[in-house]
Amino acid sequence: MAPPRYPDQPDEPPVYTGAETTGFVSPAADHMDGPLDLSQVLDLRRPGRFAVRVFGEALARRGILPDDILIVDSSAEPRAGRVAIVMLGGEVLLAQLAWRDGQWWLRSGRAERPPLLLSEEAEIWAIVAALVRERV
Protein backbone atom coordinates (compact mmCIF):
# COMPACT_ATOMS: atom_id res chain seq x y z
CA MET A 1 0.00 0.00 0.00
CA ALA A 2 1.41 3.40 -0.98
CA PRO A 3 1.82 6.10 1.67
CA PRO A 4 -0.84 8.84 1.62
CA ARG A 5 -0.12 11.87 -0.59
CA TYR A 6 -0.74 15.36 0.70
CA PRO A 7 -1.68 18.36 -1.51
CA ASP A 8 1.55 20.21 -0.73
CA GLN A 9 3.74 17.15 -1.33
CA PRO A 10 5.32 17.20 -4.82
CA ASP A 11 5.26 14.10 -7.01
CA GLU A 12 8.99 14.40 -7.72
CA PRO A 13 11.71 15.49 -5.29
CA PRO A 14 13.06 18.95 -6.04
CA VAL A 15 16.23 19.18 -8.13
CA TYR A 16 19.02 21.29 -6.66
CA THR A 17 20.11 23.92 -9.19
CA GLY A 18 22.31 26.06 -6.97
CA ALA A 19 19.87 29.01 -7.09
CA GLU A 20 18.47 28.23 -3.65
CA THR A 21 21.59 29.31 -1.75
CA THR A 22 21.85 31.95 0.92
CA GLY A 23 24.61 34.53 0.90
CA PHE A 24 26.60 34.99 -2.30
CA VAL A 25 26.20 33.06 -5.54
CA SER A 26 28.93 30.51 -6.12
CA PRO A 27 31.27 31.30 -9.03
CA ALA A 28 31.25 27.55 -9.79
CA ALA A 29 27.50 27.63 -10.56
CA ASP A 30 28.25 28.02 -14.28
CA HIS A 31 30.09 24.69 -14.19
CA MET A 32 27.47 22.64 -12.34
CA ASP A 33 26.14 19.55 -14.09
CA GLY A 34 22.45 18.79 -14.19
CA PRO A 35 20.91 15.53 -13.02
CA LEU A 36 22.67 12.41 -14.33
CA ASP A 37 20.80 10.02 -16.59
CA LEU A 38 22.50 6.68 -15.92
CA SER A 39 20.90 5.05 -18.96
CA GLN A 40 22.63 7.69 -21.08
CA VAL A 41 25.96 7.58 -19.22
CA LEU A 42 26.07 3.76 -19.42
CA ASP A 43 24.72 3.73 -23.00
CA LEU A 44 21.92 1.32 -22.08
CA ARG A 45 19.90 2.16 -25.17
CA ARG A 46 22.53 0.59 -27.41
CA PRO A 47 21.49 -2.84 -28.71
CA GLY A 48 23.37 -5.60 -26.96
CA ARG A 49 23.86 -3.67 -23.69
CA PHE A 50 22.36 -5.32 -20.62
CA ALA A 51 22.48 -4.98 -16.87
CA VAL A 52 23.19 -8.18 -14.92
CA ARG A 53 23.55 -8.72 -11.18
CA VAL A 54 26.57 -10.49 -9.71
CA PHE A 55 26.15 -13.59 -7.57
CA GLY A 56 29.19 -15.01 -5.82
CA GLU A 57 32.64 -13.70 -5.04
CA ALA A 58 34.73 -15.13 -7.89
CA LEU A 59 36.14 -11.72 -8.85
CA ALA A 60 36.06 -9.96 -5.46
CA ARG A 61 39.84 -9.42 -5.67
CA ARG A 62 39.20 -7.49 -8.87
CA GLY A 63 36.62 -5.32 -7.09
CA ILE A 64 33.48 -7.04 -8.40
CA LEU A 65 31.35 -7.89 -5.38
CA PRO A 66 28.11 -9.83 -4.81
CA ASP A 67 25.02 -7.76 -5.71
CA ASP A 68 27.01 -5.40 -7.94
CA ILE A 69 25.35 -4.63 -11.25
CA LEU A 70 27.46 -5.18 -14.35
CA ILE A 71 26.71 -3.41 -17.60
CA VAL A 72 27.68 -5.92 -20.28
CA ASP A 73 27.97 -5.62 -24.04
CA SER A 74 27.24 -8.71 -26.11
CA SER A 75 28.60 -7.05 -29.27
CA ALA A 76 32.01 -6.14 -27.80
CA GLU A 77 35.08 -7.98 -29.02
CA PRO A 78 36.87 -10.12 -26.42
CA ARG A 79 40.26 -8.79 -25.34
CA ALA A 80 42.82 -10.13 -22.93
CA GLY A 81 42.42 -8.68 -19.45
CA ARG A 82 38.72 -7.87 -19.86
CA VAL A 83 36.05 -9.46 -17.68
CA ALA A 84 33.53 -11.57 -19.55
CA ILE A 85 30.36 -13.53 -19.02
CA VAL A 86 30.90 -17.01 -20.43
CA MET A 87 28.37 -19.77 -21.01
CA LEU A 88 29.96 -23.15 -20.39
CA GLY A 89 28.08 -26.44 -20.08
CA GLY A 90 24.85 -24.77 -18.99
CA GLU A 91 26.65 -22.63 -16.40
CA VAL A 92 27.16 -18.89 -16.43
CA LEU A 93 30.70 -17.90 -15.44
CA LEU A 94 32.21 -14.52 -14.73
CA ALA A 95 35.94 -14.53 -15.40
CA GLN A 96 38.84 -12.51 -16.70
CA LEU A 97 39.94 -13.36 -20.23
CA ALA A 98 43.51 -14.29 -21.05
CA TRP A 99 45.00 -15.02 -24.48
CA ARG A 100 47.80 -17.57 -24.45
CA ASP A 101 49.22 -19.81 -27.17
CA GLY A 102 46.49 -18.76 -29.61
CA GLN A 103 43.64 -19.75 -27.28
CA TRP A 104 41.31 -18.05 -24.81
CA TRP A 105 41.70 -18.92 -21.15
CA LEU A 106 39.49 -17.98 -18.21
CA ARG A 107 41.13 -16.67 -15.08
CA SER A 108 39.23 -16.74 -11.82
CA GLY A 109 39.80 -14.10 -9.18
CA ARG A 110 40.84 -16.86 -6.83
CA ALA A 111 44.57 -17.52 -6.76
CA GLU A 112 44.10 -21.22 -5.94
CA ARG A 113 42.21 -21.89 -9.18
CA PRO A 114 44.33 -22.47 -12.27
CA PRO A 115 43.28 -20.83 -15.57
CA LEU A 116 40.66 -22.80 -17.51
CA LEU A 117 41.07 -23.36 -21.26
CA LEU A 118 37.99 -22.13 -23.10
CA SER A 119 36.65 -25.15 -24.96
CA GLU A 120 34.75 -25.13 -28.25
CA GLU A 121 31.49 -25.72 -26.35
CA ALA A 122 31.93 -22.47 -24.42
CA GLU A 123 30.64 -19.12 -25.62
CA ILE A 124 31.91 -15.69 -24.63
CA TRP A 125 28.46 -14.15 -24.25
CA ALA A 126 29.32 -10.58 -23.25
CA ILE A 127 32.13 -8.30 -22.15
CA VAL A 128 31.78 -6.20 -19.00
CA ALA A 129 31.70 -2.50 -19.90
CA ALA A 130 30.86 -0.91 -16.52
CA LEU A 131 30.05 -1.63 -12.91
CA VAL A 132 27.29 -0.07 -10.80
CA ARG A 133 27.29 -0.46 -7.03
CA GLU A 134 24.13 0.38 -5.08
CA ARG A 135 25.73 0.33 -1.63
CA VAL A 136 29.15 1.65 -0.71
TrEMBL record:
Stored InterPro entries: LexA-like, LexA/Signal_pep-like_sf, Peptidase_S24_S26A/B/C
Region called Disordered, residue ranges: 1-20
Residue ranges annotated for the Peptidase S24/S26A/S26B/S26C domain, each copy included: 14-128
Pfam families with a match to the protein in the record: Peptidase_S24
Native organism: Pseudoroseomonas ludipueritiae
SUPFAM superfamilies: LexA/Signal peptidase
Protein name: S24 family peptidase
